[in-house]
Amino acid sequence: MLHKTKAIVLHHVNYGESSIIVTLYTKDQGRITCMVNSVRSRKPKFPATLFQPLTMLELDYYYRQNRDIHRIKEVNCSFYYLTVPYNFSKNAIALFLAEVLYLVLREEESNPYLFDFLNLALQILDTNETNIATYHHWFMIQLSRYLGFFPSDYVTDQTGSEMQAFTGMNASMQNSLLKLVHSSEAIPVLSLTHSERNQLLERIIRHFSLHVDGFSRLRSYSVLQEVFDIRGQKN
To answer: Are the beta carbons of 24 and 1 closer than 8 angstroms?
Structure first.
């Protein structure tokens, strides 16, 4: 059956001499895997750039129930990033968040509210030029809202096991977490030192680890740290 949907690229791997297998998060079917033939040939039907992580797509694909891999018929980019590919910090954030999403988005069922959040949030990353150093903090906290472990109870209860990743923080980090929790549509200004930003992100990652099986230390996190450590030294 031919399906038309919007999708976000999570990951891809090479297959054979010229094909790739791409993992997508779609608005209508949740997470799916598709084969794309001849992407790495001299005259590809679809350019390989369409399948870079976090690319937003519109596609027609053949969906077959009980099949693990589907086939794409047509695909186009639905939003062209103007800054993410060329901004060192934003590119590092995108790499990091693509890995986060690949690990946490596992359901093969529709969640249009989550998809719409991701679609908007990625456009914010591309168009926003302020508070970039804490964008990924905001993104992950807001993402947890849709995954079922949003730390909203932190305001009134700091003792529950669900909140253990956030216990023992200083006042600046506590206030920053509350801003992240309550700011659903814009990246808040956080009064944190470079060291405190790193510590808060570590706690957010730990929060995810406590709720998502297999969410171990992220490979792309070291790249993100290096980028913002350099920025921190310059500030």
So the answer is: no
Distance CA 224, CA 92 (A): 5
What number does CATH give the domain 88-234? 1.20.1440
CB-count burial class (<10 Å; 0-12, 13-18, 19+) for 94: buried
| Bridging pattern class, strands 56-62 and 19-26 | unpaired
Tokens of 109: 């069922």
Domain boundaries, the chain: 2-79, 88-234
The DSSP call for residue 97 is H
Among 31, 25, 32, 33, CA closest to 6: 25
The CATH T-level fold of domain 2-79 is OB fold (Dihydrolipoamide Acetyltransferase, E2P) (2.40.50)
**DSSP-assigned states of every residue in 218-235:** -TTHHHHHHHHHHHHHH-
pLDDT tens-digit map of 68-126:
899 999 999 999 999 999 999 999 999 999 999 999 999 888 999 999 999 999 999 99
Three-state SS at 56 = strand
Q: For residues 102 and 78, give the distance between their C-alpha atoms in angstroms, rounded to a whole number.
A: 20
User: Greatest CA span in the chain, whole angstroms?
Assistant: 60
Q: Fill in the amino acid letter for 6.
A: K
Distance (Å, whole) CA 5 – CA 207: 32
Residue 11: is its pLDDT beyond 90? yes
d(Cα 30, Cα 38) in Å, to the nearest integer?
25
**64, two tokens:** 């077959």
